[in-house]
Input
Amino acid sequence: MKKTLFDKVWDSHVVHKIENGPDVLFIDRHMVHEVTSPVAFLGLKSRGIPVMYPGRTFATADHNTPTINQHLPVKDPLSANQLKALEENSKAHGISYWGLGHEKNGIVHVVGPEYGITQPGATIVCGDSHTSTHGAFGAIAFGIGTSEVEMVLATQCIMQQKAKSMRINVNGKLSKGVTPKDVALYIISKLTTSGATGYFVEYAGDVFRNMTMEGRMTVCNLSIEMGARGGMIAPDEKTFEYIKGREFTPVGADWDKAMEYWQTLKTDEGATFDKEITFDAADIEPMITYGTNPGMGIGISNGIPQAESVEGGVATYKKSLQYMAFNEGDNMIGKPIDFVFLGSCTNGRIEDFRAFASIVKGRKKADNVTAWLVPGSHKVESAIKEEGILDILHDAGFELREPGCSACLAMNDDKVPAGKYAVSTSNRNFEGRQGPGSRTLLASPLVAAAAAVTGMVTDPRELMQEELV
Amino acid sequence: MAYDKFNILKTTAVPLPIENVDTDQIIPARFLKATERKGFGDNLFRDWRYNPDNTPKEDFVLNNPTFGGKILVGGKNFGSGSSREHAAWAVYDYGFRCVVSSFFADIFKNNCLNIGVLPVQVSAPFLEKIFEAIYADPKTELVVNLPEQTITLTSTGESESFDINNYKKDNMLNGFDDIDYLLNIKENIREFAEDTPL
Output
């Protein structure tokens, strides 16, 4: 039988099938952070059971951590308590722990790939919906709830029904200034935030083949924003090159054996999907969102759609625009903004900082803009310094903060004030996502950089100083 | 964590006819700092329910004494966004045992099933009828019958069936959770793990 990439990885991890019920799915690697794990550990305690395979679980602190003065004690007692709980739980159960201040600390979905924890053909879960990021390597990776975190800790398995399959093809060549983030926002704007619910997506076509691993991670990261359980891309030479030599990557004979398996990880010719959609790369321009869900995105040079022209309820649409204080038909270009956030598991990698720097180089941060530039990990932070990007940022009037999830979900002090507009490279523009009353415009690092130096929504193509590779 | 058994629920319902209600609205991130599962109901729909000075927003349905009951009826694509189970905990802790919508986001639906909140997916026209019936008479009761997999509007007698897989249905009827099941097949898992290198 012809199998999809998703079938191959899923089917090889089924421990047990329940008729008219879920599959018991074995989980190769489990990532844990401070926010969604404490109640799971409490559950183990009340049942009096240990973590079954502590070597398969990796803990890092990211959601709740400050992005300045990380060497000092965490001021907020609730955050400090949650961080302490993660540390104690990790130590008590023999789980590797990269806490605040650890050289390998960073956002869970940034450090996983950086250290080779993320591998093709693996099943990877984490109590965080952006776990789909790891699908960039041909892994089945998705977010789970805390009950499921407890299941994985206790038994290294979860119970879920196999999702339906969808393939999204994007073919052709991307235009100048169009990044992986724009490709993802474009797809979500076409499918809506629920268009892929119940599906696991495979991304295929030239555009993804030609994308860097960082770009593929950005695309897979955003799969959840169209409702998909996860997204994945077949591994290729680029994937193998990326993971080779990383700390948790197999070596020697183990590498050869792994490669034998990894090279089988592609959808068979003639395999069918429950749904297949194809887009043309030439139709995509730099994107920006104008509403309160990630599906409310448009090409940056377009106006905000009329309520009657969008799918879904008119009342919900109008409520959304009212929250944003935008009107139907408004142009996005020229809208004044107050904050810029570069970072998150979506766009907090070195390539994103390179893109941002390419625009701000030789320019100055606009006076009306507060900019938070937050690397996804210490490794990204080091690369920013080594590549001379930090000097470019400093010359342009920007500061670099310390790694963490930061203003993406504003659990720490990095909160956008009520009524203020933030151009953010993160993943969600929900009401209050970046702080109560905050208004978020999701965009690529290039669009964020253009906004940061002009103080308003600006087409980055007008500021591009050299062709992006 | 074990929860109360679910069988037949007959109750009034709270209408929230908004689409794409995301889990950041159900429980904002700043309330996720607890290390125990308690008190989340107080912050259910926090920013829709309270002003910044913590006074209640009178026009929000949870602050309207006309509406009440153990069923929350939401618009299409309910529970999208973040995987935070805290959203399902908040719904449960507030006192809801069932959420009705014409479409649910995946992770939220799973989380509900794992903690004893029954997600009931109905057709878009039936959802409209439910909203109309509640607004016409807030005392209108809904009957959610899990054994029969039906939801009925008592005011008109109209009914629809809903899907749930046998395994989850059995769990809900008996108050079992998945870990009980998984611990029972631990030896199978151990054998599987031995063949699966890290």
Chain A has two domains: 5-262, 287-462. Chain A touches chain B through 78 residues (CB under 8 Å).
